[in-house]
Amino acid sequence: MTSPTAEDTLQVRFWGVRGSHPASGPDMRVFGGHTACVEVRCGERLFIVDAGTGITALGLSLGDQAPAEINILLSHLHHDHVTGLPFFKPALKSTRTVRLHCGNLGGESAKAALDRLFSPPLFPVRLDQLPARFEHVGFHAGETLHFADGFTVPTCPLQHPSGATAFRFEHRGRVVCYVSDVEHDEAWPPENLRRFVQGADLVIYDAMFSEDEFCRCRGWGHSTWQAGVALCRSAGAKALAAFHLHPHADDACLEALDRTLREALPGSFVAREGQTVALAPVLAPA
Questions:
Q1: Tens digit of pLDDT for each residue in 29-61?
Q2: Mean per-residue pLDDT over the chain, rounded
Q3: What integer pLDDT is reported at residue 101 of this predicted model?
Q4: What pLDDT, on a 0 to 100 scale, did the predictor assign at position 1?
Q5: Where is the Metallo-beta-lactamase domain (predicted)?
Q6: Domains and CATH numbers, the chain
Q7: Which residue(s) pair with 16 in the sheet?
């Protein structure tokens, strides 16, 4: 039997795992301090989920190997998920098209909102003043995204202030779901989200708060690792990646959480900046 090729593999790389704002300091080195950005490769097809400060390092890594057309799927437009856009190196190349997909604005694209954010007096230039061509795609969270080569990405609405969108990536029998930002409630999990992550190999989940913190922060739009584990168990998902980590959680705190999470749901972990997860295809018996 031949070894799986890159074309067969569903691969995830974490470029930013923090929520709210970047974190720095000598006790933040193991898990990293950049805000939300995840690279997903379904074979050779690249998707970027969210454009927090982590997208700056991703852009440098892509360099001249960045595809001519780059699809960035935005869960929503809060600052920690978009602030890296003007610093994404491929956006400085006139030969690149950066396509931004946004599903939490009732079908409207993110163009008007991003034009307000990235313009004087808040920012010196607009995105459309950068050399790359920016295209804006609006959709309703819950719709399936369709791409030119027939590849599809299902989506799901999430409970978050102003809404947010989850994404499901399927390739060669493997499944990764990105579920951030979301707030759980008493009737958890909702049936639509349970179906959405059904059978996933990995669920990247908003684990911003401890249970004690969550009780004081209801309505802020975030969740706990315990709710993430409950979601995975109810849906038969295999593993959880704790994500959107609190910016004040230091390495010692997160290493302890990592041990606890691995015991609660084997195969699970706290996501680390630079970490790669590669899922080989599910092969038919020889």
A1: 999 999 999 999 999 999 999 999 999 999 999
A2: 93
A3: 98
A4: 41
A5: 34-218
A6: 10-278 (3.60.15.10)
A7: 37
